[in-house]
Amino acid sequence: LRFDEQVRVVVFRSQVKGVFCAGADLKERAQMDDAEVGHFVKRLRNLMDEIAALPVPTIAAIDGYALGGGLELALACDLRVAASSAKMGLIETTRGLLPGAGGTQRLPRVVGIGLAKELIFTGRQIDGEEALSMGLVNHTVPQNSEGDAAYQRALALAKEILPQAPFAVKMGKLAINRGMEVDIASGMAIEGMCYAQNIPTRDRQEGMAAFREKRPPRFVGK
């Protein structure tokens, strides 16, 4: 996906009704020794980092349970949409564990330190409405009879992104992600570098021409 220039948005969904991702298989985990557990979690953390590093916008469509590593997968995405009935939580402390695939780092960056600590310390599960109220998800929708309401809303969100200039969107994502990790002066420099890369693009010229000619732009991602 990273190297496919035709890809403009990635939506993560589950084919299992009622479950986005239920996290690690604890029965499988129980058969591992300490070294194997450490290796497994390191690989899982690397996978989440790869998802977070995708250059295009990513959307998690949470139509059911997103627990433990399942919520960490959703947190690795740029945007999250949930059914109101979905259940989310970093439940690791209820099993003698702590989040190990990015949850302790990404959750506080999304909802703030206080709420992140509360959710991780208690292992509490919350529904889509609660997730929306704390900013964990961008949108919450009532579940439908097919069980894919969040996916349908995620598709609608993706369709809002699709017409925009692909390279500009990628640079916007890069500027936000890199800028959030540094002080604001450094962040401004990062924005300036990303903007400079966008200036010579054909899409920027097309955007200006379309505005002058009062027509929709035809972006090609170049």
Automatic annotation (TrEMBL):
Cross-referenced PANTHER family: ENOYL-COA HYDRATASE DOMAIN-CONTAINING PROTEIN 2, MITOCHONDRIAL, ENOYL-COA HYDRATASE-RELATED
Keyword set, alphabetical order: Lyase
Biological processes, Gene Ontology terms: fatty acid beta-oxidation
Domain of life: Eukaryota
Species for this entry: Dryobates pubescens (Downy woodpecker)
Gene Ontology MF terms in the entry: enoyl-CoA hydratase activity
Xref: InterPro entries: ClpP/crotonase-like_dom_sf, Enoyl-CoA_hyd/isom_CS, Enoyl-CoA_hydra/iso, Enoyl-CoA_hydra_C
Keyword Zinc in annotation: no
PROSITE patterns: ENOYL_COA_HYDRATASE
The keyword Metal-binding is assigned to this record: no
Family per similarity comment: Belongs to the enoyl-CoA hydratase/isomerase family.
Protein name: Enoyl-CoA hydratase domain-containing protein 2, mitochondrial
A single Gene Ontology CC term: mitochondrion
Pfam name, any one: ECH_1
